Amino acid sequence: YEALSYVWGGDRTVPIYCNDREILATPNLVSALSSLRQKMPKYPRFCRTLWVDAICIDQDNLVERGHQVQLVKDIYWHARRVLIWLG
């Protein structure tokens, strides 16, 4: 998997859809995901696994969020590649 590191930015969010589920994302995350998608090869079988904290951690579940935050260092450490988005 690859992990995405980015600046969350302000409190403003916009809805995005992941696996038919609405997720509120910051405009900076939307920009990062859009850029990554545009740079993906146009092969129908190409697939990448991307770990993004705002998507992979249930932000509304305080228990899960507290537990997962402790694992973030290991998640980045074990990623095949860490992508950094500066905006």
Q: What is shown here, in short?
A:
With 87 residues, this protein is an alpha/beta fold. It is built from three helices and five strands.
Q: Secondary-structure blueprint of this entry?
A:
Blueprint (H helix, E strand, L loop, with lengths): L1 E5 L7 E5 L2 E5 L1 H13 L10 E2 L1 H4 L5 H17 L2 E5 L2
Parallel strand pairs: 1-4, 1-5
Antiparallel strand pairs: 2-3
Describe this structure in words.
The strands form 2 sheets. A 3-stranded parallel sheet has the order 4-1-5, sandwiched between helices. Strands 2-3 form a two-stranded antiparallel ribbon. The protein has helices spanning 27-39, 53-56, 62-78; strands at 2-6, 14-18, 21-25, 50-51, 81-85. The protein has one domain (2-85). The chain is built from 3 helices and 5 strands, in the order βββαβααβ. Helices cover 39% and strands 25% of the residues. The mean pLDDT is 89.
N→C terminal distance: 22 Å
Instruction: Provide the β-strand percentage band.
Output: 25-35%
Which stretches are low in confidence, meaning pLDDT under 50 for 5 or more residues running? Answer: none
Q: Biggest sheet, in brief? A: 3 strands, parallel
Rg (CA only): 13 Å
Indicate the overall shape. Answer: globular
Organism: Glonium stellatum
InterPro entries: HET (IPR010730), HetReg/Transcr_Mod (IPR052895)
Domain Heterokaryon incompatibility: 1-87
Pfam family, one: HET
